[in-house]
Amino acid sequence: MLELEKRIQEDAIINDDNEVNVDSIFSQYVDVNLLNQMASEWAKRFENLHITKLVTIESSGIALATLLANKINVPVVIVKKTPEFEVDDAYFTRIYSHQYHQSITAYILKKNLCRDDKVVIIDDFLSNGWAAEGMIGMIEESGAKVEGMGVAVEKAAKAGGAKIRGRGIQLESLAIIEGVDDSGKITFKH
After folding, report:
1. Is 2-78+113-133+143-188 a CATH 3.40.50.150 domain?
2. Contacts of 164 by beta carbon, 8 Å cutoff, 6+ apart
3. Beta bridge partners of 15
4. What is the pLDDT of residue 99?
5. How far apart are the C-alpha atoms of 140 and 144, rounded to whole Å?
6. Rg for the chain, CA atoms, rounded
7. Integer distance in angstroms from the first to the last C-alpha of the chain?
8. pLDDT at 100
9. Rounded mean pLDDT of 51-62?
10. Inter-CA distances, 69 with 24, 65, 85, 92, 159, Å
């Protein structure tokens, strides 16, 4: 999606290790018009699936999932990180967080998914696939089926995309970062 690639080129932060940070696009400053265009694109790409729910992990995926949910008229289930109180009736997983440099507990309340659900996962970034694998595991534990995954930005050089595609899940990435050159210019795979 060219508009998203342009925004990444302009606003993403590149650290000393040439890692691309897109927080400035999805969590610190939210351009609702851009996110709405992204939701419209996913709605087209997933139109042949009979989706009953969207699942996203807090917090950057919430705005993306909500706008898509509004377009396709399904609810959003939010995976919470680290329970704030004791939770018994939930599916749990451990996810390594690149952001926090440690494993975190994530959970979905059991009442929010059922075995008849057909789910699409929405997330802002796919790198190694740790969060995606954790969400898929909880969804499958509920008996629901993961039909697809929509990712705003995928890092082509990391294993996450191959893991998801290898499971036979329809992965729709709107921008795929191929790399960053020495001048800081981000290249995209088309």
Report:
1. no
2. 126, 129, 132, 149, 171
3. none
4. 64
5. 6
6. 16
7. 9
8. 67
9. 93
10. 23, 6, 28, 24, 28
The conformation of residue 127, written as its DSSP 8-state character, comes to S
The answer to whether residue 86 scores a pLDDT higher than 90 is no
Query: Among residues 166, 168, 123, 133, which one has the least CA distance to residue 147?
Result: 168
Q: In angstroms, how far is CA 62 from the centroid of its own chain?
A: 9
Distance from chain centroid for Cα 60: 8
Give pTM, 2 decimals.
0.94
Strand, coil or helix: 94:
strand
SS3 label, residue 141: helix
- What are the beta bridge partners of residue 102? 97
Segment 71-84 shows an average pLDDT of 91
Residues 38, 159: Cα–Cα separation, whole Å: 23
* Cα–Cα distance, 172 to 174 (Å, whole number): 6
